[in-house]
Amino acid sequence: MSLEPILIRAATRADIESIAAVMRASLLSLGRNAYDERQIASALLYIARPDEQLIDDGTFFVAVDGEEIVGCGGWSRRRKVYSGSAAAYGEQEPLDPATEPARIRAMFVRPEWARRGIGRQILQHAEEQAAAEGFQSLRLVAMRSAGAIYEAAGYRKVADSPITLEDGVVLDCTLMGKSIDDSKTQVLANPPVLA
Hints:
This protein has helices spanning about 15-30, 35-45, 50-55, 120-130, 145-150, 180-185; strands at about 5-10, 60-65, 70-75, 100-110, 135-145, 155-160, 165, 170, 175-180, 195. It is α+β, with helices and mostly antiparallel strands. It has an eight-stranded mixed beta sheet. It is globular and about 40 Å long. The two termini are about 20 Å apart.
């Protein structure tokens, strides 16, 4: 771990393997605070894979320390609400920024980098990008192991939102949201370095 500032940059397809490794490491460590072994195993199989559409859209970011990817996350202008292999009709359709919330997606940090503000930096960058495209509000489906970061960033619970994965395993999650105006009031103590 270097003493250099963490760099936040757009993810590329060359990052896919490293992003998946961050997702797996996060689920294996931080996910155990909220889910049992069967749920973790299913999440590793069906959720711990980057959504290439987000990368292609330029709305997925990585946090980099030197050459190492230590965190990832982003937002989407499309209907799909969480990462993973499951596909549903219409989920790649674009959202209407004037009437529908942008989706915050796939926020993961390597366990040894947790609680250092990296997730918050990625989240703020994603929020700013969504606002720049005219979105008025944000929504996300939070894994129970990650709800605290979103609450600290001003998100509020909308409803319980369990996810049923392809093997029938259910992950208890929470649908959360906030308005873009709320994002503008959040201030970072250490703003990210952007590439």
